[in-house]
């Protein structure tokens, strides 16, 4: 499947890109992260400790165990600081 | 319900006036406004990033939840993004209810959820450089009381 992956705040800055499109067969968010980490060093740095990160699948906040079947957009970001 | 995510400043007085106008069945309107607070080392600028699309969905979901929990006539949420200076208004919420207890509780609920469940991120620039504002554990704890 084709997935749009979005990065926000320090993840976007550290990776040097706001979004990318990937071809993947990842079953879960965690699988997708493992695939990215295996790809390049900068991903390993950003995803080194996912407990401090948040993820949204198709613009709904979820967790790293979430399945990706049917998903189109996955976003990774730090804890939110609105208000 | 009205949810607005915008770069432009807003006139809080005018917004409250418009929100309150023409209501005869609401006895209470509560408003809250968040401002850019200066820091000890001198804040030069604040940049607010957000996730277009998800931001509006998340805010709508939070406002809908508030409407389920309390007897509300209406909800208004305005949140800005982009570059802001110390003292500028970042956001506001307004709730209208027949009685004040519902209006106060719903406004607090909206603020607590908006702080850590709506996809906004603040970056502060001081003389020392730029850094992303870290979420506080207290913000996450605040959600548990609801």
Structure description:
The complex is a heterodimer of chains A (83) and B (146). Chain A has a single domain (2-77), classed as Ubiquitin-like (UB roll), CATH 3.10.20.30. Chain A has a 5-stranded mixed β-sheet. Chain A is built from 3 helices and 5 strands; from the N terminus they run βαβααβββ. Chain A has helices at residues 9-15, 29-39, 41-46; strands at 2-7, 19-23, 54-57, 60-62, 73-77. Chain A is globular. With 146 residues, chain B is of the alpha+beta class. Chain B has a single domain (2-144), classed as Aldehyde Oxidoreductase, domain 3 (Alpha-Beta Complex), CATH 3.90.1170.40. Helix content of chain B is 35%, strand content 35%. Chain B has helices at 12-20, 54-69, 100-117, 137-144; strands spanning 2-6, 28-35, 43-50, 74-80, 82-84, 89-97, 120-126, 129-132. The longest helix of chain B has 18 residues, at 100-117. In chain B, 30% of the residues are buried. At the A-B interface, loops of A face helix 2, helix 3 and strand 7 of B.
Please write out the topology.
The complex is a heterodimer of chains A (83) and B (146).
Chain A: E1 2-7, H1 9-15, E2 19-23, H2 29-39, H3 41-46, E3 54-57, E4 60-62, E5 73-77
Parallel strand pairs in A: 1-5
Antiparallel strand pairs in A: 1-2, 3-4, 3-5
Chain B: E1 2-6, H1 12-20, E2 28-35, E3 43-50, H2 54-69, E4 74-80, E5 82-84, E6 89-97, H3 100-117, E7 120-126, E8 129-132, H4 137-144
Helix pairs in contact in B: 2-3, 3-4
Keywords (chain B): Molybdenum cofactor biosynthesis
Protein name (chain B): Molybdopterin synthase catalytic subunit
EC number (chain B): 2.8.1.12
């Amino acid at each position: 499947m084709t997935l749009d992956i979005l990065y926000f705040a320090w993840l976007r800055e550290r990776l040097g890109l706001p979004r990318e499109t990937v071809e993947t067969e990842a079953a879960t968010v965690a699988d997708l992260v493992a695939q990215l980490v295996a790809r390049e060093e900068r991903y390993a740095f950003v995803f080194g400790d996912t407990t401090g990160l948040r993820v949204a699948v198709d613009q709904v906040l979820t967790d790293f165990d979430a399945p990706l079947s049917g998903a189109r957009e996955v976003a990774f970001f730090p804890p939110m600081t609105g208000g | 319900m009205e949810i607005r995510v915008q770069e432009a400043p807003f006139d809080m007085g005018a917004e409250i006036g418009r929100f309150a106008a023409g209501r005869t069945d609401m006895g209470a309107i509560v408003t809250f406004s968040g401002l850019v607070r200066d820091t000890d080392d001198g804040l030069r600028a604040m940049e607010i990033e957000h996730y277009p699309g998800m931001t509006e969905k998340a805010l709508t979901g939070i406002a809908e939840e508030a409407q389920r929990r309390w007897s509300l006539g209406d909800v208004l949420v305005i949140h800005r993004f982009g570059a802001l200076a110390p003292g500028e208004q970042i956001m506001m919420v307004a709730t209208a209810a027949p009685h004040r207890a519902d209006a106060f509780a719903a406004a607090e609920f909206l603020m607590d959820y908006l702080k850590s469940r709506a996809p906004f991120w603040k970056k502060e620039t001081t003389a020392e450089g730029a850094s992303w504002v870290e979420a506080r554990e207290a913000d996450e704890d605040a959600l548990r009381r609801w």
